[in-house]
Amino acid sequence: MTDSLPLDPARTRRDWAVDSCLFLLAVGLGVFTAADRMRLGLAGPEWFFDVEQVVGALGCAAIWLRRRWPVAFAVALVALSAVFELVAGAMLVGLFTVAVHRAPRTSITVFGLSLITALAYVLLRIESGDDRGLLLMLGVAFQGVATGWGLVIHHHRQLVARAGAEARLLAEQAQHHAREAVAREMHDVLGHRLSLLSVYAGALEYRPGAPPEEVAGAAKVIRESAHQALQDLRAVIGVLRAPVGELPQPGLADVQELVDESSRAGMRIELSAPLPQSVPDTTGRTTYRVVQEALTNARKHAPGAEVRVLVAGARGEGLTVEVCNTAPGSAPAAGGGAAGQGLAGLAERVRLAGGHLVHGPTATGGWRVEARLPWPP
Which terms does the record give in the GO molecular function aspect (predicted)? Predict the structure, then answer.
């Protein structure tokens, strides 16, 4: 963000109101000064006073053009103010405009120039030494107020602009996190169901001569999995329509059903130990997703392998989730998909829960996924 604030050439109603007030202020100050000069008597020739009135009127009229060339407008009036007193009102408007819409360095430079011209005016036009000092102090005070007021407005607008930019950035980050959360939910929930469909559809494709009872059983599993996938999809879409906290989320107690479901689909799975109790909700949900993703990957990339699931830990020590599978018993089914994307999202989920995820091949040709999650005392 630059220090100079842009000027919008298209005036709003507020701009018209501000310009009208500043114009009337400059005209009023010029009329008051001219009347005071006439009351006290003209200090110079009458023709010079007539020229000064014309210059003052032109300066006030130029206020309506100051938004296009604020610095040029201010500098021109500051220069004229060294000789012509009646442009003082328009000159103050110029100082204010520069301070509002240009960088503080530019505003201070123009203000410094106005101090020089104020000194030149009292030396050229004022004969009495006492009057010179008083008029110089008044001029410096008015010019300082105009510039200071403009700088305050300039600083306030910059703060508002920065706050707006930060709010937009926070909103974009929130949207990004929400999209990532939805993507993780869709991958975790639908990937498990669709991998079952892929396994059974692949079995029907590669075994066209299977007994009718096996075909019927596979078709039943496909139908049930497709129906469940549709239900899961509706639940995931609910993430876009309701706060996540209001949606039912699977926990550690649902891991047993997840293992049983995969076993009914033909996977050889062993749950090594009873599931711990009283685990925090966040840790339980993350544990479920770790097991779900590991079983999905084993089903896609290691068909026929034996899988061992271990969930163990204690309060104050943490929770360990380990899923290991042996080497695949056959080639992965067609359409298994690319590996690694789900694990990357899973690692992010575990990290957000305050844990750590490791995964990689085993010495026997299998694959191991292990997550360590916090379990406060």
Answer: kinase activity
φ, ψ dihedrals at 263, nearest 5°: -65, -40
Residues in the chain: 377
Taken in order 193, 198, 199, 205, is the CA torsion positive or negative? positive
Higher pLDDT, 126 or 152: 152
Question: Tokens 């060294």 belong to which residue?
Answer: 82
Q: Which two tokens stand for residue 115?
A: 């101090």
Do 37 and 128 lie in one domain? The reply is: yes
Residue 307's identity, in one-letter code, is V
Query: What are the tens digits of pLDDT across the range 32-90?
Result: 877 877 776 656 677 777 888 888 889 888 888 888 888 998 999 989 888 888 888 88
Domain boundary among 135, 169, 203: 169
Does 41 reside within a domain?
yes
Torsion sign (Cα): 63, 64, 65, 69: positive
Cα(312)–Cα(272) distance, integer angstroms:
9
Q: Show the DSSP H helices in 207-254 as ranges.
A: 212-241
CB 369 within 8 A of CB 294: yes
Residue 207 has pLDDT above 70, yes or no: no
Domain that holds residue 59: 13-169
pLDDT class of 242 with cuts at 50, 70, 90: low
Q: Are residues 120 and 257 in the same domain?
A: no
Which pLDDT score is estimated for 111? 92
Q: Tens digit of pLDDT for each residue in 168-205?
A: 787 777 777 766 766 666 666 666 667 767 766 766 66
Closest to 310 measured CA to CA, from 274, 260, 336, 282:
274
* Same-domain check for residues 143 and 281: no
Does residue 185 contact residue 239 with C-beta atoms inside 8 Å?
yes
With H, G, I as helix, E, B as strand and everything else as coil, classify residue 270.
strand
Same domain, 154 and 281: no
Q: Which helix (H) or strand (E) holds 292?
A: helix 281-301
Number of domains in the chain: 2
Tell me the whole-structure pTM to 2 decimals.
Answer: 0.47
Q: Are 131 and 30 contained in the same domain? A: yes
